[in-house]
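>> received
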Amino acid sequence: MPLTREPRVGRIGHTLSSLAPAPEKKSADLGSPAVHEVRDAMDEFMTRFDAFKQANDERLGQVERKLTADVVTTEKVDRLNAALDLQQKTVDGLALSMTRPEIGASAAFSPAAREHKAAFNSYIRRGGTGPLRGLEEKALSVQSDPDGGYLVPAETEQMIDRIVSEASPIRAIAGVRQIGAASYKKPFATSGAATGWVGETEPRAQTGTPKISELEFPVMELYAMPAATSTLLDDSAVNIDQWIAEEVQTAFAEQEGAAFVSGDGVRKPRGFLSYDSVDNDNWAWGKVGYVATGAAGAFPASTPSDVLLDLVYSVKSGYRANAHFVMNRQTQAQIRKFKDADGNYLWQPSLTVGDAPRLMNVPIAEAEDMPDVSADSFAMAYGDFRRGYLIVDRLGIRVLRDPYTAKPYVLFYTTKRVGGGIQNFEAIKLLKFGTA
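>> returned
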């Protein structure tokens, strides 16, 4: 059944509730200290959120009575809002660390995988290249060479990809495809074949052929260079695979996050904010449509939530079922103060550890690389990013051991190849903080 636009802002949450994806179930040892720590952090967050709502209700009451709020009350709301952000970071960090698997905890490897893991461990700890070179020559590998490093074991690669997916907000919600070539090409039809209605015995006019165009997503090289001491490498108790995965994940996630949002496509993926933008009423394929707030660098002074509803309904119904809002923490702090006509807060924290907070019952992907609210900025995006934005990963993560450049430290030049760009321009819309 198609969605209709509700006349009252107060019904937004109910209108979109059927569109929001169900929270993912996560299993954990309910008696472990880590779970208790996350629960305590979540309880503290909810306590602070209740205090924030009480202070913000007081501020809104003062505005309604006196057309302005007391400075003390405003400062209190801002202080509690900032405290919420800090506590949210704590909860997110604890939840992320709790979901990371230990390398080696999976089922037994195949003999070939165990051989590769042992050879890689010898290379990382002592620089022995013979076993790895022999294995890759035997496998006819074209994705690495002795001058460019050696492929990490498949389990380590999966560990890095999983951690980066959990830490990178755009990767977590976008479409991801793995390839073995230097680029991924995706054909699409810019116009369909001609059609029409005819009678049973009437002659059929010759139809036109569809026009086919092509999107190309080249992969670019992303690197990180963690350093280790000889003591760490000599310590047999240290899981080297896990150490490399955890060392590079932060660098990879930060670089990817920035590129997927605003990358210019030169030696990096192209971000969804780098494409040409146009008012959604004049939208055309190849451009990203936007809805303007009507106020330069701000939400409208009255009924600010109306522009959020306009943004939601600028996206076709087929893309709203799996949609996300994307914004940074500063923008989220402003929206956290909004209420609907019935006095309900539009922003709600997640009731499940590890799940995203929600705006109008739609999950929020918090991307710190999104711009702050300012004049004519695109500080908020909305849409189905899994169908709208494509991330392309070339299989294979390489490590090159360098014991010479920074003696006495050993550097590990770790590289992966990744690309990205918009694959469906209908699925993503932006909110422009401007008058037109």
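>> The mean pLDDT is 81.
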